[in-house]
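Sample entry (501 residues):
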Amino acid sequence: MQASGGMRAASAVGVCLGAATLVITALPSPMLQLGLLGLVCPLVAVLSGNLRRVLLAAVLLDTPLLLGTHLGYRPDLADFGGLVGWDISVTTLALAGLYALWAMNLLGRVGATHRPAWRASLPGAAYLACVAVSMLVAEDVTAASFQLALIAQMFLLYLYMVSVVRTREDIVFLVTVLVTALAGEALLMVAQGLGGSSFSIPSITGRVPLSTLTQGQASRIGGTIGSANAAAIYLSLLLAPAISVLLTPLGRWRKRLALLAIVLGAGALILTLARGGWVAFAISVAIMCLLAHRRGWLPITAPVALIGLVLLVGLVFRTTIETRLVAYDEGSAASRIPLMQLALRIIEEHPLLGVGANNYVLAMQRYATPNFSDYGGDWLYLVHNHYLLVWAETGFIGLVAFLWFLAATLRAGWRAWQTNDRLVGALALGFTAAMVGHLVYMNVDLFNDRAQTQTLWVCAALLVCISRVEVRSERAAVSEHALTGQGRASRARPARLVLLG
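Predicted structure, serialized as tokens:
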């Protein structure tokens, strides 16, 4: 009877989503499309039985799909890489639903009540405060509010996750959704690369830059994210966690899903032609293999097999890799150095508070004249170094807050990795290794758009959630042992890890 009911619910969900897709296709406005999705999600949740998980899954799936619109669109900011408007997306709607549910739980005592984890969220709150304060010195307050709106949404998502995601089952569910999203995005990118053409779905567009094709170079694939570099950030940040799933005691189907995501993701990462993404992925995998072997989780043959798998994928895309590494890149790498020097000039004059959030692209045009070309500058764009960008826009205080946020995340991951819990330790190792790789990657690329920002904040939140779950379970075991005097906790069977809802 339960299986029959589950099949009926799944069928109903499929019919609803299919009908919604057809209706969305005919809608003229992204806002109307978002409104329809807002109506469909509760229906899907009722049929599936868990609204909270449906909304969280919507956030994770929206990270690469970028279903939304920008209110107050500013083409003058788009030309130089700035944030172009107030971002309203599926994530925005899902956050509204999640906080409405949370408020009902807190005020009405309906279901489990989870108090806000303010202490764990303090580094993120400090960075958000610095972004808000920078508006006081911003030349264009409206442009600054675009970034404030984005960071505020990311902080609210972070606060919700670290406060409400409390169980091992929740962690497994979120990791499964992330790996599924990775596999889906990578599959689209590989298909796009092999087909050599663009695709278009309502509100979703995949692009192959025609300029690279016409010059006879290998094309760069951006998938649904659009930018090849942004897609590389997304892929390289999630590949290490996908590999870590193979080290956990989870079931076969999740490990097979993770293996599929790894193979497709590695191929898609190659097709982005983002050398920084390749380096970040290599660093994260090296760290993970070294520490996993140190814990006895990884036999010496496993890294060899992994290297063989990567080499196999590399052979498939050998021509693409050789072209990117050997062929002339039109000064792409060299042109970033003058942009960094320009950022340092701005920082020199505005060291404490910066020029204001999302105001760098406005300020740099004044500093680029008249002698930008004197030190090699021939391409004016947003600086490809996220640390310098944060410092230039929010000042030294903002940079310290951002580094505090990253350090707190790594500390949580390191603490969780050192536990004896194989599930928690392996997942923490994967996410921590990925974060370390991206500490390096942030020196040479852009991390300001929603896709990169949301992926970073979601991974950071999951690391904190993982560390908090393990800390609570260890304390519970100690308390139970002290009360019974029998060590019952040490003999208890581990909790069954299933995908609920």
